[in-house]
Input
Amino acid sequence: MTAKLISGAEVAAEIREELKTRVKNVVAKGVKPFLAVVLVGEDPASMSYVTSKAKGAAEVGMHEETIRLPAAASEAEVLQVVDRLNKDKNVHGILVQLPLPKQIDEKKILDRILPEKDVDGFHPINVGKLLIGEPDFLPCTPHGVQQLLVRSGNNPEGKHVVICGRSNIVGKPLAAILLQKKRGANATVTICHTGTKDIAKYTLQADILVAAMGVPKAITADMVRPGTVVIDVGVNRIVDPSKEKGFRLVGDVDYDAIKEKASFITPVPGGVGPMTVTMLLVNTVRAAERKAGIQSPE
Ligand SMILES: NC(=O)c1ccc[n+]([C@@H]2O[C@H](COP(=O)([O-])OP(=O)(O)OC[C@H]3O[C@@H](n4cnc5c(N)ncnc54)[C@H](OP(=O)(O)O)[C@@H]3O)[C@@H](O)[C@H]2O)c1
Output
């Protein structure tokens, strides 16, 4: 069996088309969706993420502004910017690009963002709301994974989803999303982590296997049952002198071997990655829709 490719780029493009219409509807009510991004320092990866967020926002007709602070900025300075954006009635979504320089307490900054503008979905209030099944904003990467599954015809309802990784930004919120008694969810969820003895025992039982470990080739072909749907969240840099930048990106699964066993698989790059930015745009439009008194789609 050779797996069908789930293209994150294609699904993201489909969602962005839908967003263009939603943005027009909000604008017609006098509200222009506005995403504010805070970038501290000049980390090349962060700068490239911020650029793709700005491009995505422009593509769907939203307003975007990146506030750039020097790498030496103090915690107080970043908090000041967040406070200003919290107060600005025209701003619907605030995203502080992580990681932040060492002198700044990330948690303190993220907790300062008003929950109703927290389009990353990381504020404790939004995390709690997700867990009880009343979310305002779903965290972007796990929401993107759910959309990839549903829109590729692999609805997780009634399926056994095994997630490898329990981080607060991917594994745990993905589990919280997929176990809700809702459409596009209602799955049986198992989470594996470094404390799990014999991970293969669980991955071999998966209908849908999600790898979010940050370890290249952590999932090998012998850990995958034929016909499994495999979603690779991992993004790892591997030294590759043949590339202009000196590295290439690989996921957490042994792609070449597993694509011969899986029924569906996401590539890296071009799988989950393009979805993350798109779901950030979805959350910002959602925040603007609320302001405009428009009911957002689920
Ligand atoms: N495409 C995207 O948009 C996107 C977004 C976010 C993250 N990512 C990528 O996804 C990957 C995971 O990110 P993250 O932020 O969730 O990473 P993280 O915070 O480092 O968490 C990794 C998780 O995987 C578990 N783990 C690591 N090695 C393992 C092993 N050998 N066996 C079992 N479990 C193992 C860890 O277990 P413990 O809890 O026991 O330590 C931890 O729960 C990274 O490659 C990251 O770059 C991609």
Notes: The chain has two domains: 32-115, 140-273. Residues 141, 164-167, 169-171, 192-195, 199, 212-215, 218, 233-236, 272-273, 276 surround NAP (CB under 6 Å). The chain has a mean pLDDT of 97. The longest helix spans residues 8-28.
